[in-house]
Specification:
By secondary structure, this protein is an alpha+beta fold. About 30% of the residues lie in helices and about 45% in strands. Strands 1, 2, 3, 4, 5, 6, 7 and 8 form an eight-stranded antiparallel beta sheet that branches. The two termini are about 15 Å apart.
Amino acid sequence: MPEEQLKKAVDDYILANNTCTLATGFGEFVRCTPIEYIYHDGTFWMFSEGGEKFHALEHNKNVCIAIYDKYECFGKLKGMQVTGKAQIVEPFSEEYVVAAEFKKIPLEALKKLPQPMYLIRVVPVKVEFLNSDFKKEGYAGRQTKYF
């Protein structure tokens, strides 16, 4: 598939959704967390109250995000895996404020919380996109995009 066409298909699919599964791991510890995301400037942003995923992120910044449609049948598959690098964004930093504004979370509401809401930033490295519709366009059903 031509690069620009694949980029558009990837971006469209990511933007058409807002929930993913974030996989983190370190040593024998693994965690797979359903979480809401926003996507802008080619980056995933996830606000979180905390949880065990942060244990792994302290030691390993490599993550995988899965976004997928409900399974209907073999000929209607659609989902992607995004391999990337995670970073914890400092609460109330410039990036944090921009992400909160983009998500339409009032900054004053975040400041009133008993402890700050964490923000995870994931920069994609590779996307593997399985989409049965690609076959209708004459392309392989599985496409890979590197960033």
